[in-house]
Structures are given as structure tokens and as C-alpha cells.
Design brief:
The chain has two helices and no strands. By secondary structure, it is mostly helical. The longest helix has about 35 residues. It is flat. It comes from Methanolobus sediminis.
Length: about 100
Amino acid sequence: MSEENESVEVKEEIVSFTPKREKKEKKEKTAQEHFRNGMLALVGIIIALATLQLYFSVSEIISMWFEYQYRPIFRSLYYLVVIIAGLLVLNRFFLKKEKN
């Protein structure tokens, strides 16, 4: 018996696909939802303006209450608190991962 070596070519196809996501039906927004979104935007703007005013007011308070040699220390602490609070807000509301 003689054995013959046959070369067999196997072609592999790599198929990649992204699963189709079901599209949610878009509902028409009611006047109530438009009003709610508008009020939310208005309140957000008012809060942002109040936050800026508070930020600058605290800086002035530091200038009035503390001697000139201690001002940089208290301003640094204040700015650190502002940065930490900003990062917490970003993390909680904007960088939050969707849970499915």
C-alpha cells in the first residue's frame, strides 16, 4: 500500500459582525416634557451662575478674613475642595456607566 500525501487547502473566513440593536421607537414629546426640559435647563443655568458667584465671593472672603501671608494656603485649600467637588460631580452625573 502506498500512501499518497495530498495537500488540502483549508480556507478560513473570519466573519465579524456587530449585533443589531433594537431601535427604540421614538415617542413624540409632549408639551409637558418640553416644559420640563426647558425648566431643567433654566434651573441648570441659574445654578451655574450662582456657583460662579459663590466661587468668587469665597475668594474675596479669604482676602478679607486672613492675613496676607496665609491667603495662599487658604486659597489653595479652597481650590482643592472645588476641584474635588467638580470631579465628584463629573463622576456621578456625567461619567456614570450605563447599567444594562
